[in-house]
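Exercise: predict the fold of this chain.
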Amino acid sequence: MGQGSGQGNGESASPMMGGGTNMMGMMMGMMSGGPGGMMGVALENAPGPRIPESAAKTLATAVPAGATVGRAGNAITFSTNHMRLAMIANSDNSANDNRMFFEIAGLRNPTITVPAGATVTVQFVNADDDEAHRLAFSAAAPPFPFMAMMDAWPAFPGAEGPVLGDPTVAGLHSATFTFVASRPGAYSYLCLIPGHAQQGMFGRFVVAKTAT
């Protein structure tokens, strides 16, 4: 996994094992989703912030303040130096490709452009009912291997979230972290769970030299 602590704004990262897990559930998770399925079951009862499913659906489609959404180009461009970005991890079992994705402002894995020096606060939510997910912003570029997390170190201090497990009746796991996009360039945001980025769970993150 990445080098950072996976903590931000005082929220605790989920531990690697959650309570209330039984062996049968873990076996079913492994069978249905590989490492992500097993981790999702193992962490479903982990402590940490949660939000209702209805709130996640609202966040997934809301346009962030200071952002321009280009739906035809699948792109989001920010013009402000401080921004809050909701990124909802989910999957679509009916899709032939790009089954797992991050939904942002109603787009799947869009290109995100921010001005250099911008402070980016990310609210990361796992709305996937049978997979764990973990988000990071990295200088690594596609195509990503199965073990993408081995090389996808955070590009900026604090630019990663913890592993979030499956939702339960208590709500969807959520984590918030903040980083400064200090260096212009082309980066990626991706899921660090083995196999997820390889299957298409990633997008471009561009830090522009001047305000866009």
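Check your answer against the key: The first helix runs from residue 23 to 42.
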